[in-house]
Design a protein that fits this description.
Blueprint lengths: L7 H18 L1 H4 L30 H37 L1 H16 L2 H11 L4 H28 L2 H8 L4 H9 L4 H24 L11 H8 L11 H24 L11
InterPro entries: BP-dependent_transpt_permease (IPR050366), MetI-like (IPR000515), MetI-like_sf (IPR035906)
Keywords: Cell membrane, Membrane, Transmembrane, Transmembrane helix, Transport
Family: Belongs to the binding-protein-dependent transport system permease family.
Length: 275
């Protein structure tokens, strides 16, 4: 891949993602104040010691935004990785084994997708304990249904090719076929889908936090920051708009990179884009 061939839109997305990741990694070094430190009056305007102002409890918005990047990106990335691990293994197994296994996995997946994702998540999270790993697991399981669908589609496309049939004739097992034949030839479209699912996870986590069932206070995350400061909009306070803009910006940056990756992928068949 030639660096010069990367379009400006993709570079904008890459830079935006890099800034968010750096904030997440080096949050304690970058943030001017602590994540939970009350430093002034509530809803102070931007300026002086507070670049973005303060929130509903007098905490520095910039510091909360930086720490929130760590929480939001970590949870969304963990849920996306877990959903891909689960969805790809099950979808590739269904495509390779076929028959009863394929029908069982596919019909169960259709059943899960028939339930509205947000309603299902709200019901489950309202019943289960409010632990971070529970939130990640619920998000991953719900998102894995989408991964299963596209994983099965691209795997079936590759599974009928001659080199896969040759591997079967050689007596190779299902696991060997999945990891040595199908996975390398479906990597490009799946990487693009990974980016889309990551962007969705960011938005989904922010929605759950806004509704009170995502990241629990006093931990900072962008959706929770919108919820905490939403009442200020009535009085002309823009504190809720800052994390909302951060959510939108990161989602757009991810989609810009994904759009470039998808354009490089000529087709799902073989999963190989232009070099």
């Amino acid at each position: 891949m030639n660096v010069k061939s990367i379009p400006i839109s993709a570079w904008v997305g890459i830079v935006g993602i890099a800034i968010a990741v750096l904030c997440a990694i080096f949050a304690p070094l970058i943030a001017p104040f602590g994540e939970r430190e009350i430093v002034g009056e509530i809803w102070l305007p931007a300026g002086g010691d507070f670049v973005l102002g303060t929130d509903n409890l007098g905490r520095d918005l910039l510091s909360r935004l930086i720490y929130g990047a760590r929480t939001t990106i970590f949870v969304a990335l963990a849920a996306t990785v877990l959903s891909f691990a689960l969805g790809m293994i099950l979808s590739f197994a269904a495509a390779v084994m076929g028959g009863f296994v394929d029908q069982l996995f596919s019909r169960f997946n259709d059943l899960m997708m028939a339930i509205p994702t947000l309603i299902f998540a709200l019901v489950v999270l309202a019943v289960l304990p409010q632990y971070l790993w529970v939130l990640i697991l619920v998000m991953a399981v719900l998102d894995s249904t989408r991964v299963f669908r596209i994983g099965r589609a691209v795997a079936l496309d590759v599974a009928v090719m001659e080199f896969v049939e040759a591997a079967r004739l050689r007596g190779e097992g299902s696991l060997w076929i999945i990891f040595r034949e199908i996975l390398p030839n479906t990597l490009s479209p799946l990487l693009a889908e990974f980016g889309l699912r990551f962007a969705f996870s960011i938005l989904f986590l922010s929605t759950l936090s806004f509704l009170g069932l995502g990241i629990q206070p006093p931990a900072a995350d962008w959706g929770g920051m919108v919820k905490d400061n939403k009442d200020g909009i009535i009085f002309g306070i823009s504190a809720a708009l800052v994390p909302g803009a951060a959510i939108a910006t990161l989602a757009i940056c991810v989609n810009l990179v994904v759009d470039w990756l998808m354009k490089r992928t000529s087709s799902l068949k073989g999963g190989r884009g232009d070099a």
